[in-house]
Amino acid sequence: MKRFSALIALALLSAPPAHAQGGPFCAFSIPTPVSGTFTVDTTAGTNWIDTYGSLASPSNDIMYTFTTGTTPPTGSITPTAASYPFAIYLLSDCSNGGTQAMPISQTTTVGTPLNLSGAEAAHTYYVAVTGTPAGGAGANGTLTIDVTPVLPVTLQSFEID
């Protein structure tokens, strides 16, 4: 029975996430998939964020969220394909207003991962997907993201023959 349950859990983790795009408030942030590849479509979002720290955000925004466990997060969030000039920001908090805190980490390049090394244990973080400031209000489109976790390994059993 345990093996069957483990197979079901593994199958659910490998299934592509299906969800609606996030709304114009932090409470509507979408849980970030634990692993796998997913596509974000910012044309389905709204321009509810004006700035990320000193970085202007004239295009639509989609917000994701994740909470770290008892150890800081490892792994990566890497953009793998884009149809527009995108920006991904890692934020330590989310404000329902039009101004967000300065990002902990950011990337605007396909293949360059979002650096999670600045994130701490036992904290909720937000991942904002938007257009680059230089792209203007029309910097919207699709972005494919790959989430690769580094899972901790624990000893399950030990035998000496």
Helical residue percent band: under 10%
* Outline: globular
The helix count comes to 1
Number of DSSP-assigned strands: 11
Described by strand count, sense and barrel closure, the largest sheet is: 5 strands, mixed
Averaged pLDDT, please? Answer: 81
- Taken as a percent bin, the fraction of beta residues is 25-35%
The oligomerization state is single chain
SSE order, one letter for each helix or strand: HEEEEEEEEEEE
Please write out the topology.
Blueprint: H1 2-14, E1 30-31, E2 36-41, E3 51-52, E4 55-56, E5 62-67, E6 76-82, E7 86-91, E8 99-100, E9 105-107, E10 124-131, E11 142-148
Parallel strand pairs: 1-5, 3-8
Antiparallel strand pairs: 2-11, 3-4, 5-10, 6-11, 7-9, 7-10
Q: Could you give a quick summary of the protein structure above?
A:
The protein has one helix spanning 2-14, and strands spanning 30-31, 36-41, 51-52, 55-56, 62-67, 76-82, 86-91, 99-100, 105-107, 124-131, 142-148.
Description of the structure:
By secondary structure, the chain is mostly beta strands. It has a domain at 37-135 and 142-148. Helices cover 8% and strands 32% of the residues. Strands 1-5-10-7-9 form a five-stranded mixed β-sheet, with no helix packed on it. Strands 2-11-6 form a three-stranded antiparallel β-sheet, with no helix packed on it. It has a three-stranded mixed β-sheet with strand order 4-3-8, with no helix packed on it. Strand 3 (51-52) and strand 4 (55-56) form a beta hairpin. The chain is globular and about 65 Å long. Residues 1-20 and 151-156 have low confidence and may be disordered.
